[in-house]
Write a structure and sequence with these properties.
elongated, 23 strands, alpha+beta, Elongation Factor Tu (Ef-tu), domain 3, six-stranded antiparallel barrel
Length: 392
């Protein structure tokens, strides 16, 4: 009986020990499962090489090779005009004639004054010759025949005559200069084309009152004609500061106009302003294009397409890989020991699905494609087994 009781006690103790051991094993398994479940599984991509060339489209303004407003240099009335807008002209062609009655009267008066000054010179020359001979006779007279005082008086008369003659000649030169000035103004009665080109504007008509002036500096004289040389055109555009490093003379571009949507015009960068505007942070760039068919017109809006060569290689990563943290833009990279390292990066263009990374990343890095917001430096992660070896 006692033996049976001892046997039952031994069996009970064994059963309890087995239960405790089994529960311990279960606790260990649960702990291991919980620990493994706490390790995040991430998808990684390898950055792919991007095209460092940037294709940009910027607005531009088309301007003529030369374009000159034609103003009146004299005041009068328009007598006649000979070329309307749209007409092709050669250098020196007369665009219009101006009647200048006031200027004509001034020129006639100036010529009369010049004639009077020339006549005065002849009078003064005669006086000078008479004073000279008189002084010579008094000077060469025998001693005692004339007084020294009389000789000095005749000498003074001669010197005065010379001075009056010089003054008369100076007045003649002044009168001649005035005639020359008015004659030069008379030449401006004819408005002429300054170069071969096209008349793009005519803002006057026969009989209109013409005021001399350029309309600049606060003046109100309007331009009468405008002539443009359009055999070759200039295209000006404002380039953001970020893109200025790659735009150099010789860079080719394509130009498109709204009125010719299917046609492409070819242009080349001729010059840059070598300065950035403080207000807009842009730099002015000039392109040039041949215009044999005259389709490019002054004042036209254009879209300029440029392929700007990159200065440094770029890598592409998914836009979803970017982390916006307090230190700036970062990406999460998986290290060889399966832990997270955060790398600060500098980005270029946003291409929608992908983003250009210009600094801070290596081509061999394993970048977490869509990192959770809570991911941190040193976190242990698992890589999904079906990840591709490269980014899209």
């Amino acid at each position: 009986m006692r033996i049976a009781a001892v046997a039952v006690a031994i069996l009970a103790a064994g059963s309890v020990a087995n239960g405790i051991l089994s529960r311990h094993r279960q606790d260990v398994a649960v702990a291991d499962w919980t620990k493994n479940a706490a390790i995040a599984t991430v998808h990684v991509v390898t950055p792919k090489a991007g095209d460092s060339h940037r294709k940009v489209v910027l607005p531009g303004d088309v301007q003529a090779w030369f374009e000159s407003p034609i103003y009146a240099r004299v005041t009068g009335y328009l007598k006649a005009w000979y070329f309307d807008f749209g007409a092709h002209v050669k250098k020196g062609d007369v665009l219009a004639d101006i009647e200048t009655p006031e200027l004509d009267a001034q020129l006639a008066a100036a010529r009369a004054t010049l004639d009077a000054r020339k006549a005065d010179v002849k009078v003064k020359e005669a006086e000078q010759r008479f004073a000279k001979t008189t002084y010579a006779r008094w000077r060469d007279s025998p001693k005692g025949s004339v007084s020294v005082q009389e000789q000095q008086a005749k000498r003074s008369d001669y010197e005065s005559a010379v001075a009056r003659l010089d003054a008369a000649k100076a007045n003649t030169e002044i009168a001649q200069a005035e005639v020359n000035r008015l004659q030069a103004l008379e030449g401006f009665r004819r408005l002429v084309a300054p170069f071969d080109g096209t008349v793009t504007a005519r803002n006057t008509d026969v009989g209109a009152l013409i005021n001399a002036g350029s309309g600049m500096g606060g003046g109100n004289a309007p331009e009468l004609f405008r002539v443009a040389d359009t055999h070759r055109m200039r295209i000006f555009m404002k380039v953001p500061q970020l893109l200025t490093a790659g735009i150099v003379p010789g860079l080719k571009a394509e130009v498109r106009l709204p009125q010719y949507p299917e046609k492409v015009f070819h242009a080349v960068v001729a010059a840059t302003s070598q300065a950035v505007n403080l207000a807009s942070r842009t730099s002015v760039v000039e392109l040039q294009s041949d215009n044999a068919d005259s389709l490019l017109q002054p004042g036209t809006y254009a879209q300029v397409s440029l392929e700007i060569p990159g200065t440094e290689p770029v890598l592409l990563v998914p836009a979803s890989a970017l982390l916006f943290r307090e230190h700036g833009l970062e990406v999460a990279v998986v290290t060889p020991d399966s832990r997270i390292a955060l790398k600060r990066i500098s980005v270029g263009r946003n291409l929608g699905v992908d983003v250009e990374v210009v600094d801070g990343l290596n081509a061999t890095d394993r970048v977490v494609a869509s990192p959770p917001a809570s991911i941190g430096k040193g976190d242990l992660v698992k890589i999904a087994s079906n990840d591709a070896s490269v980014a899209r």
